[in-house]
Amino acid sequence: MKRYLFVLFFVNCFYISGLVAEISDAQQAILDTLPADQRESILIKMRQAESLQTDLEETFEEIITVIERPDKKVLTPEEEAEYLEESRNWIYGYEQFLTSPTTFAPASNMPIPPDFLLGPGDQLDIRYYGNENTTTQEFISRSGQLNFPTLGPITLAGLTFREAQELVQRRVSTELIGTSVDLTLSKLRSITVYVLGEAYSPGSYTVNSLSTLTNLLFVSGGVNEMGSVRNIEVKRSGETVYVFDFYDLLLKGDTKSDVRLQDGDVIFIPIIKKTARAEGYFRRPHLYELVEGDTVEDLIFYAGGFTSGVTGKARMELSTINEESKRRDLDIFFSTDEGKLSALVKDGDAIKVSELGSLEESSISVIGEVKYPGTYTIQKGDRMLDVLERAGGISDQGYSIGSVFTRKKIAQEQKVSFERSANLLEQAIADALTGGNIQNISAGSLAPVSVLIARLRSTRPVGRLVVDTDPLLLKTDPFKNILLEDGDKLYIPKRPSSINVVGEVNSPSSHTFNSETTIQNYIQKAGGLRNTADSSSMYIILPNGESNLVNRRAFSRRHTNLLPGSTIVVPRDPRPFDWLVMTRTIAPIFANLATSAAAIAAISND
Description:
With 606 residues, this protein is an alpha+beta fold. It contains 14 helices and 27 strands.
């Protein structure tokens, strides 16, 4: 039965390849008794002090065409928080360049556009048909000429592909009567272009002659943190011939603004000049780069517009720097004010939009012994009693004392706590192995800890919150009538008639509740205590989720707190864990797991 699955035993024997020689034979023998995931995790902790690194690149022979920037790494929670703070000042568009191709393979399979400019190094397939049938391949020479059979050299460099086709067809039609010609560009020449200014990796790049500005930006890593993405200049022969705005491509999908590069072109990335921030309930809140003429309406467009929780008449705040007073002025207006929307945005401005909390979609699931079980919409300020009344109240068979109320946020916190406990246990094993305490460790003593770590990692807590659902108590005590949140779940069970006995007993089982039966009697019915039981730390999990330690004097007496649906838990004796530095924390870990399992069992056995 699910109710008794408090101990899950996993035995997996895998060997880690490539172990470092610093691990002794005795340490290795103990580590080999652990499951593979725990063994690897403990090895990492053992080697952190020595900063050992393993190069895994040779293991993978597959070709990776996209890599992350060299300075990108997996972050700890603390580093991630620091990263988020630092990235707050990155303009929108900068992170698009966090990955870049390792190679820039020639796009030889692409159709050649008619306006493609020919130059030295391009190879053409020439096919005569008609009176003459000849096929050959020729390169355009450095002088710009291509040598045609019978016709001789013709200058093609500097012509577009369409112009070259028309020129050759005219020459063939006049000089080779009865013969037609077909030209195909079979191999593209390479060109050298330069990326300068505030680039992530400035320098010269050799790419194929079909490459565009965006191709080169991505292959070179894009801009650095100070580089503009909206004023990127293409310089040719010392003059700026094109200014590229990356937002046209990124926000509008407009590829017309992408320009094809020529040999010797310079891509110059200037410093960012103007920025403004969009915050609050935008679909894409961020720091945006501005160009001359950008308005409040443009900034709203960059930010993706408002979220669904914002009404058509959104309340907005524009914070701008007053150059005279050297302070910020705050202008509050609504999104329907055309005059404000057309105002120019200045460098350093910040715009915020508010959301009506009452428009937020929230719901709670109510199941079990209520008149109308189902999912109910909750509004701001709704409490437990409100939703119970809408559900028709608790039925005659309902057991309000055993209500199970769960919340997503609490489940996440409990899972983090379980993971932290697993890490602490692994660290304790690593400390014992490296601290000279290895003679006290055996496979037998390590196995219970391994099982506990596995359970901590595999258990998914439901996030139970101890609440009262008795309507009378909720009406008389406002503190018990808690506020509801989106995603909450409430389960009202039927009135049970049994007591559960689990843990270190010979036959974990359920027994009919009798108010005159003592805890000792229930344990005797469950086959008595095992040798591994800790009789001094027994506790009761009440139907509402609360836990009470069993007083030894009440062990053989009638226990007033023992209610139908309660679970008597007999924990394991912590002495097998004496070799661990953190032995005292083992009992609370077991208790937390048992409480979580009891909540799961209460819902699962409906």
